[in-house]
Amino acid sequence: MALTLVQFDFPFAGPWGAGMTEALGGLAQDIAAEPGLVWKIWTENAADGRAGGIYVFDNPDAAAAYRDKHSARLASFGVTGIVAHSFDVNADLSAITRAPL
Amino acid sequence: MALTLVQFDFPFAGPWGAGMTEALGGLAQDIAAEPGLVWKIWTENAADGRAGGIYVFDNPDAAAAYRDKHSARLASFGVTGIVAHSFDVNADLSAITRAPL
């Protein structure tokens, strides 16, 4: 299984923490059903005013499709300054550092 | 446990894949023993000429110390253009999307 990691981050004004969970729980349910998604970690930095996510997909095509879809969704929310990068996962090095893959 | 996620990426000229594993296996053993590190995923993108990693630490101080240490190490290897961001993990949203935390 060729894993693809996608990292998104972008300017975000909150809510943070429990408020973020309440506001975005429905979106999380939707993202959980995304084709090819293994998992997503939700990230937030109130001090820097940035949020995002780290995604692992089980194939590169699903990762690319999601990257386009999520970029468009964020733009529709009025988000600008989106940074999105895709990477192959080096599974052997990651195993040495206990990555849960 | 307040988890902190650190994302690093930077210009990289290879080696990639198995060659990267061979070149950096010793470094991976060293990083595996880093205080507070839960895990690291090693990332590489030969087409874009970038590599990096996604780290989860079990406390923010360990994450900040590692971020400084690894930035200095990369600079000592001649790496420039390092992008490093730290985030809190939203555990509740991440649980909805099956994150292994």
From TrEMBL, chains A, B:
Pfam families: ydhR (PF08803). This is Putative mono-oxygenase ydhR. It comes from Gemmobacter megaterium.
